[in-house]
Amino acid sequence: MSAADGPIARVLEHFHGTRSSGTGWAARCPTEAHANGDRDPSLSIGVNPDGHVLIQCHRGCDTDSVLAAAGLSMADLFPPRETKGLGTPTATYVYETADGQPTIRVLRFVPKTFRQQHWDGSQWTWGLGGATPPIYRLPKVLAAVAAGQPVIICEGEKDVHAAERAGWVATTNAQGAGKWRRDYSKIFKGATVHVVADNDDPGRLHAQAVADQVAEYAATVHLWIPPDHKDLHDHLAAGRDVRDLGRLIPEEAPSGPSTERQLMGAALMALAGQIAAAANDPKRTSKQAMTYVRELVTGLDVPEAEITGLHELHSFISTAEEEFDWLIPGLLERMDRVVIVAPEGAGKTQMARQVAIMAAQGIHPFTFEQIPPVRTLIVDLENPPRNIRRKTRNIVRAVEMERAYETGRCWLWTQPAGIDLRSGSELKALHQVCEMTEPDLICLGPLYKSFLENGEKAETINGEVARILDNIRATFGTALWLETHAPLDTGGGRNLRPMNSGVWSRWPEFGIKLVPHPDDPTNRLLTLGRFRGDRDERDWPMAMKWGARWPWQPLWSEEEVESSIEVLKVNPPRQDRSYEADESSNVSWIHGTNAS
Questions:
Q1: In what order do the strands lie in the sheet with 102-109?
Q2: Spatial distance between the Cα atoms of 195 and 242, rounded to a whole number of angstroms
Q3: 115-162, pLDDT tens digit by residue?
Q4: pLDDT tens-digit readout, 188-203
């Protein structure tokens, strides 16, 4: 196996004094145990038949110490799996955190193509996984800056390794020209920095923008360019020295109205170059070239689907049952979805408030038993704040009769004009509210005011909204309690299914309909029916009646329902307006008139 094949190519780049020796290589051991710099190389490097790199120090240094000193990890010694349509990587570059832990790695393929993986704690997984790449060789850069040594910033990992072989500390950013982040520049506070441009328009634009940002923190910044070669690697490979670089005069660099615009221009120019190269690459078919271009334009860095949820059946069912992650014991588990449907004025909004406020105070909303409190968020898309104050105050007062009310656990976001979850700015506002309140349970409604209709089919709109809500549920680990109105049927009555029920009848774990009891003359007693079967057995009441202390009082049996109806016939409730006495409330508020 040659040094160009598999992970051995990257491993050899990390060692000095490397030379062929028998069927492998000899190199200087980089650990501190070698006070003289290991001038007589004591490190043996080889490759077994499956491509696994073998390292041994003949003076007793353990492999972990050797790898740490060289800026490698054990994972770098093993060949990455084949990637569909791309073959085996020709180079692999590992990016590390400040304390030397692997975070992402960049794989290079032929034709020139790059893919990223992130380290999940046990293995490399495709994509960045939400990780923000640090600069390359970060631990070495931090050490050099602290020691007052100069640092080179170039474009590309191959250039970094070339500079290191020449005895310099060097770095770059992942993903090429135009991807330098402002946070990187702060690392170079007080340092002497040499920025080396690639010898093309995107490279010069990128280098100028990086130099401008780094100059805000560094003591001195010099801007260089290889006068006769395309990059620093080729410049050094031709036998030239870093000191032979030519100065890049800022006035000669393509300039824009701002550093950010320069970086954007560099990124777009680099992208255009990659697209042109792909279109003219004879090794790619037209279909392969179009696929690659699509990935470049969309920013897709995952060549294969990441398969999750695949299990061998017998092993899957043999796993011990996980405990329920209850929010409301026996009723609602984390990540559950509940949709409550009823006619206007039936009391479903007040039921949602009761659930949210009581659960946040550690009271079961239906059994009134003590439970562990959870964080809740009420998103009211219909009612003005004054109305909400009146209707929630009596619930808070009832809680205070039981215990001291704990503030900061139940939050209310009022958007009486509604929001459009399909709008980027308004969805972002909801995400920001969730980040601020960290809810375990979101009670939102009415559902029809969470989107705008633009002429699309109802099924299309509701399917998109359902996916958005599922994303919120997964992102924040929250359960959802949604309320929606019951549409009129063709006879003028009420069809107690959600509006546009095609999506919502399939979507929730629990689809509850509140049905007025036919024998109740006051419409203050509602039975809990189903517009879809429950996916799990839970302790839902049989019916709910309007209560004197709590807005809704649960009824658990036929006997309780019949007894309540008899009482209502003899002593119908009066309209209770005592809760309008004042304007104070202990509910925490996030109040706004719009979501933008």
A1: 91-96, 102-109, 113-119, 124-126
A2: 11
A3: 888 888 777 887 777 778 899 999 999 999 999 999 999 999 999 999
A4: 999 999 999 998 888 8
Residue 516 contacts residue 531 (beta carbons within 8 Å)? no
Q: What is the β-pairing status of strands 113-119 and 102-109? A: antiparallel
Strand order in the sheet with 220-225: 169-171, 151-153, 192-196, 220-225, 246-247
Per-residue pLDDT band at 260 (split at 50, 70, 90)? low
- The total number of residues shown for the chain amounts to 596
Cis preceding linkage at 446, omega within 30? yes
Closest CA to 27 of 35, 15, 37, 36: 15
Both tokens assigned to 382: 């219909």
**Do 267 and 155 contact (CB within 8 A), yes or no?**
no
* Closest of 181, 231, 227 to residue 202, by C-alpha: 231
Helix (H, G, I), strand (E, B) or coil at 508: coil
**Which tokens belong to 217?**
């923190």
pTM of the complete model beyond 0.70: no
C-alpha to C-alpha distance for 210 and 178, rounded to whole angstroms: 9
Q: How far apart are CA 217 and CA 539, in angstroms?
A: 61
Helix residue ranges per DSSP H, 120-172: 138-146, 157-165
CB-count exposure of residue 502 (10 Å: 0-12, 13-18, 19+): middle
Beta-strand runs (E) in 53-208 = 53-57, 91-96, 102-109, 113-119, 124-126, 151-153, 169-171, 192-196
Integer CA distances (angstroms), 150 to 153, 317, 366, 529, in order: 10, 59, 68, 73
Q: Which helix (H) or strand (E) holds 233?
A: helix 232-237
